[in-house]
Design goal:
Helix content is 48%, strand content 11%. The protein is of the alpha+beta class. The longest helix is centred in the first third of the chain and has 22 residues.
Length: 170
């Protein structure tokens, strides 16, 4: 259904995106029986494919599992592992635990925010970076710790953080 508040080019883009989501979701759902106890595994697979839980996918999943949409959205918002907005291709997590805090994680976070132009909890408009804070990684001996795309960077400094970002967050 066309949205009168957006231009024709934008509407075409939205329609193409919806078709793509439906096609990929159908491929995911094909390997499931439609049992309600499959909700979390399906949500995990949807997020793995899309990088977040698109609203359209959650609505279709509710129909597939014969669950109220409120149940699917409730599970999707209850667990911290699920994201309702797209995440960046590079996910940067800054530890805010006590050991990291004492060793300068706040300054490191501030530098990363400055360089990326986003705050913790946000994603850059080009979807290149998402910046998150974590209560504790459990790597206190390496404090302060920054994790980029699941790679742990220990004994981080403001300078090292800047260098990593300049290399493209590897």
């Amino acid at each position: 259904m066309a949205n009168p508040s957006v231009g024709q080019d934008t509407q075409v883009l939205i329609n193409n995106q919806e078709v793509s989501i439906q096609k990929r979701l159908n491929e995911i759902l094909h390997s499931y029986e439609g049992s309600q106890d499959e909700l979390i595994p399906i949500l995990q697979q949807v997020q793995q494919v899309f990088g977040y839980l698109p609203e359209l996918a959650m609505k279709k999943l509710a129909k597939f599992l014969k669950l109220p949409e409120s149940t699917v959205f409730g599970v999707g918002t209850f667990y911290a592992q699920f994201k309702l907005v797209p995440t960046g291709r590079n996910i940067i997590k800054v530890c805010r635990g006590t050991a990291c805090h004492v060793r300068g994680s706040a300054q490191i976070l501030a530098e990363i925010e400055k360089q990326l132009g986003i705050s913790a909890g946000e994603t850059s408009p080009d979807l290149e970076y998402s910046l998150e804070t974590i209560a504790c990684f459990g790597s206190c001996a390496l404090a302060p710790v920054v994790v980029i795309n699941n790679k742990v960077h220990g004994r981080m400094t403001v300078t090292k953080a800047g260098e990593i970002l300049n290399r493209g967050a590897q």
